[in-house]
Amino acid sequence: MFEELRADLLGGLMEPGQRLKLTVLSSRFGVSQSVVREALTRLAEQGLAVSSPQRGFSVRPLSVADLSDLTRVRVQIESLALRQSFELGDLAWETQVLATHHTLQRTPVTRPDGSVHDAWSTAHREFHRALLAGCGSPHLENIATSLRDGAELYRRWSWMLTDDHLRDLAAEHRLLKDLALDRDADRGVEALAEHIERSTRDLIAYATEHGLDSDSPDPVGTGPVARHGRPREEPGSPSSA
């Protein structure tokens, strides 16, 4: 059930901040509440859910302050790691960048229903990890990976709620690959920062316009996350079966 619930969260079937009730999920998946609790704990460890003594588990809220801070730190950390990779990366690093980029380029971004393909997300993660893998510091790599993983749900929301799907992602990744092979650190850092920050700008603009910021005095709930602003059906409704 963990993978199914994780897919629901990443697929936008649950709105930011929505409560995840043990009894409801236990009944839905036909498992004990202890199994549900374990799955939700794992989701919380991945930054997809949060736990509080009063409310139990809930979907991670869409917080503009958190997203802004996360993006700022990601740019700082990944820029440092990328610059070091450009300086220290060897032939094996170049080969890894080329191989992961080829996989990313050949993997479909979306499924027929328009949702992000899990295989593409995996390829995307591996390409960005490869870019930083030449930095010579496992600790720096781990920090960068942890921050990037923490932004995964925000990336999915940006894709579903904004016009992020209209971006030429292939061109952005191709540029990063080419700059890595050219060892152009200054342009590489600039391109990476824009690559990271664009999704954040679009999602913050959408959240502000639609009252989705959990930090605002009176956030407005919109039901299940909408794809490009269109309401999504509740799981189990006739049109989503």
Question: How would you describe what is shown here?
Answer:
The protein is mainly alpha-helical and 241 residues long. The protein folds into two domains: 1-61, Arc Repressor Mutant, subunit A, CATH 1.10.10; 64-210, GntR ligand-binding domain-like (Four Helix Bundle (Hemerythrin (Met), subunit A)). It is built from ten helices and two strands. The radius of gyration is 19 Å and the shape is globular. Mean pLDDT is 87; it is low at 220-241.
Topology:
Blueprint: H1 2-10, H2 22-29, H3 33-45, E1 49-52, E2 56-59, H4 64-88, H5 91-106, H6 118-132, H7 138-150, H8 152-161, H9 169-182, H10 185-210
Antiparallel strand pairs: 1-2
Q: Main β-sheet: number of strands, strand sense, barrel status?
A: 2 strands, antiparallel
Just give the CATH class of the largest domain: Mainly Alpha
Q: List the domain count as a whole number.
A: 2
Radius of gyration: 19 Å
How does CATH name the architecture of the largest domain?
A: Up-down Bundle
Q: What's the CATH topology label of the largest domain?
A: Four Helix Bundle (Hemerythrin (Met), subunit A)
Instruction: Please give the alpha-carbon distance between the first and last residues.
Output: 18 Å
Summary of the model, kept short:
Helix content is 62%, strand content 3%.
